[in-house]
Design brief:
Glucose Oxidase, domain 1, about 500 residues, 2 domains, eight-stranded mixed sheet, alpha/beta, 16 strands, 14 helices, Aminopeptidase, single chain
Amino acid sequence: MIMRPGIRRFGIVALAAASVLSGAPAPAARRKAAAAPAAAPPAIAAEVLSTRSRMDDDLRTLCDEIGGRATGSRAYEAALEWGKEAFRRAKVDSVELESYDAPAKWEGVRAAASVLQPRRFPLRVVSFGNAPSTRGTLMAKLVDAGNGTRSDFDRLGTRARGAIALVRTKPMTSFDDLFAEYLAGPEMLKAAQAGGVAAVLFTSTRPRDLLYRHTITFDGTIIPLPIAQVAREDGLRLARLLERGLDLTVSLEIENQVGGPWKGKNVVAEIRGSEKPDEIVLLGAHLDSWDLGTGALDNGVNCALVVEVARAIASGPRPKRTVRFVLFTGEENGLLGSRGYVAAHEAEMDRYDAVLIHDIGDGRILGYFTDGRPDIHGSLGQALAPVSGWGAAGMNDEAILGTDNFDFLLEGVPNLIANQETARYLADYHAASDTLDKVDMAQARKNAAIAAVAVSGIANAPTRLGRRQSRAEISQVLEKSGIADQMRTYGLWADWESGRRGRR
């Protein structure tokens, strides 16, 4: 899940540094004693690029054998075990599962819908994530709720009560469109509840009957109204029939497994630093995915990347700083795993040099978002200098809400998100089509090499990447970037304002 207010693709600031990757030395030997000098980043990049089968095999296991990994499902449990075993094979110093509190457990089971009158025909639907069941088959009149705004539902008046509301959408062609879809969700839910509808049919923004799973809860709770997505072609047909004045009766049945508070788990691995073991560089990606596809681009490919970087660092001289590798879960349900991780490790936040998150598929890495931290450009530029010749050393100060960097940002820790080309990512985002065949493994391996250079460069730098920000400085980043407004829309602001979330 990635949300940000404007995808200016991407305002990159190029760094003037010569590439040395083309002449990279042979792979580093096995990790030496603690006193040994750290491996040069180009050697680490070459190590990743020389072992193509391991990353491929990891991704095949995760996507083809385990499949879609909704947090709390059996596939999620299998993925946790895969993560532990993959890090053990990578020969890290330690790996364990760390628990966090999740407010609700959710897993989709089935959804079905049909038009019953005046002429029967089936509809292709899928439940929204974290939506409740309908408790049997719901049969109700279909009403046209336009774009799902407050004024649209007000226009319906008493006709909305007990009805199923059809919400229209525009086609998604850009990240801005995707962001607008997320941003409209909370208002649609509030308006639908106020209107008294029994359920909502939300028209897919993607053509050719492609279904995907989103949620409009951003704290992991169960939303109070059954909401299903209907295939775009079906939704457009329904809209045309309603425009002609036909009275439509629709049946909708949603069955989801819903449970109360429970303990989720993250996979946490570590390679201990040789000179500054108390300082931490964290590389992370989210292991969970929605379950219609197999979660290849979002975000299996980057889980394989994290494991591959761990293997490459473990195969060479020990880094100066401790490097921690985390496969977060609960990301799709509201960043639950990373929020829980930060809460559990809050006392050590001063020790984090940097957090790097990868969550935009296999697109070519252009550099990193620095999340409102221009002060770290100089030190980050030095870490990324070896990959400048690949066009991978750019920096963008845009701050981002919507992936596992967020709670680190709220703690003032320098946090980076891989800035990647998105052309191949959007069409399959959260969709049934997000499968292994969409992944460009050659580019994925190159991305892993870039990540290894970045992590190694930061972990072995003579000075820290940047200092931890104060609460006042974090507030300035939130307001200036527009994240504060997003947090208010998504119901996240109160926890920050009260000090329940983020640096106090």
